[in-house]
Specification:
Largest sheet: 5 strands, mixed
Structural class: alpha/beta
Helix content: 25-40%
Strand order of the largest sheet: 6-5-4-7-8
Radius of gyration: 19 Å
Shape: globular
Number of strands: 8
């Protein structure tokens, strides 16, 4: 197992996600760095075949079509070995990989270990540049926060309309501009749409917090 530079502080929203490479289902290893360019939903869960973890991962599996529509990759991570993951994934037909972090090094990098070194049920949404846009670490882990994470991915600024998309919708728009202005106009379009997405995310987060106000982590 390998992961990036150790973090002296708890990583959170706005921080670069610690990179790692872990073995997983499907007979291969997975590197976070190789997923750069698309949103990633990292799901740290306590254990294979436990009631709450099974319900949680099945709920994400049921929403894979929505995640795929945003080009987002869901990844499950726990401390069980790959053999355990393979059985768990096959039993429930998971369409996303489960990664094995046996020595819990990645758990420590993301600060998702609780009392007695036990994993805390946690979810991180990363944008296409590998920046953490959402972080939730459960306190007890006896339940899981049922959020529509594909909505979060959409509104967190990870799925934005960019200058290239505008030019595709309006062929020749950027080409019609003087050459010296094309790059700056494209960047302004990117930033404008990102700002709109972040405003929508703020509204979504407020609604989500209200819906989960009585939820016991």
């Amino acid at each position: 197992m390998g992961y990036g530079d150790g973090m002296s502080k708890t990583v959170g929203v706005g921080d670069a996600a610690p990179v790692f490479t872990l073995p997983g289902t499907g007979g291969r290893s997975y590197s976070l760095a190789q997923l750069r360019g698309a949103p990633v939903v990292l799901v740290f869960y306590p254990g294979d075949n436990t009631p709450v973890c099974t319900k949680q991962l099945c709920s994400y599996n049921d929403e894979l079509t929505q995640f795929a529509g945003l080009s987002a990759q869901v990844i499950g991570i726990s401390a069980q070995d790959v053999a355990s993951h393979e059985k768990f994934a096959a039993k429930h037909g998971f369409g996303f990989p489960l990664l094995s972090d046996v020595d819990k090094a990645v758990h420590r990098a993301y600060d998702v270990l609780g009392l007695m070194n036990l994993p805390r049920r946690s979810v991180f949404v990363l944008d296409a540049e590998g920046v953490i846009r959402y972080a939730h670490r459960a306190v007890g882990g006896v339940t899981y926060r049922h959020a529509s994470y594909f909505d979060l991915v959409r509104y967190s600024g990870t799925h934005t309309v960019r200058g290239a998309d505008v030019d595709a919708a309006f062929p020749g728009f950027l080409d019609a501009l003087p050459t010296q202005y094309r790059k700056s106009v494209s960047l302004l379009i990117d930033e404008a749409y990102r700002a709109v997405r972040m405003d929508l995310y703020a509204e979504w987060k407020a609604d989500e917090e209200a819906r989960n106000a009585e939820l016991v982590d």
